[in-house]
Write a structure and sequence with these properties.
Strand content: 5-15%
Strand order of the largest sheet: 1-2
Mean pLDDT: 80
Radius of gyration: 36 Å
CATH architecture of the largest domain: 3-Layer(aba) Sandwich
Helix content: over 70%
Distance between the termini: 111 Å
Number of strands: 2
Number of helices: 5
Number of domains: 3
Order of helices and strands: HEEHHHH
Shape: elongated
Structural class: mainly alpha
Length: 185
């Protein structure tokens, strides 16, 4: 039993990737993941961080927060100059603003996705005829639907009566106004 492991729990041996194209693609993906993790660490822990990478072709890549100078001074235990502190504060402020905008966009995207799902449901429901929906009703649903229809019918008749009364009273007022105008002449 101990020798059996699921696919997710198996230890994958770490070894050099021989295919140069695969190695380059893997480096790019892992670099991106490393930067994302560093950014999350900066946001969650409010720290300064510096990462320097060199690809197999000796191309340098770096990630520093807030600035290279601030991280280097921290690393060397030097006192930060006023200028470096101002630049670091400015960079941190910009990062916070950008992250807030990103969060707002993510919220809007989630809302748009929910609306899209609802619209898809409505669109799918429109394709199904109303009679097919009624066939799915149980006894309680039918009673509620019948009560709703009766209430809607009553409301429509009541509103129609109101509109007829308004039309009658406005036409009588128009005739009376016309009579008053001819009497005044």
């Amino acid at each position: 039993m101990e020798g059996k492991k699921t696919v997710r729990r198996q230890k994958i041996p770490t070894e050099k990737i021989e295919n140069e194209g695969t190695r380059s693609a893997s480096f790019s993906k892992r670099q991106s993941t490393l930067y994302k993790m560093a950014n999350e660490l900066v946001q969650q822990c409010d720290i300064d961080i510096g990462i320097i990478l060199f690809s197999s072709t000796d191309k340098p890549y770096s990630f520093f927060h807030p600035t290279v100078e601030a991280v280097a001074h921290h690393f060397l235990n030097l006192e930060l100059s006023q200028t470096i502190r101002l630049v670091a504060t400015h960079v941190q402020t910009k990062v916070i603003k950008i992250n807030n905008v990103l969060e707002e966009f993510e919220t809007r995207e989630e809302l748009a996705n929910k609306q899209t799902l609802q619209l898809d449901k409505v669109k799918k429901a429109r394709k199904i005829g109303w009679w097919e929906h009624i066939e799915k009703f149980n006894g309680n649903d039918l009673i509620k639907f019948e009560a709703w229809l009766n209430a809607a019918n009553f409301d429509m008749k009541y509103r129609l009566k109101q509109m007829e009364n308004e039309a009658t009273s406005s036409s009588q007022t128009s005739v009376e106004n016309a009579n008053d105008a001819s009497d005044a002449s």
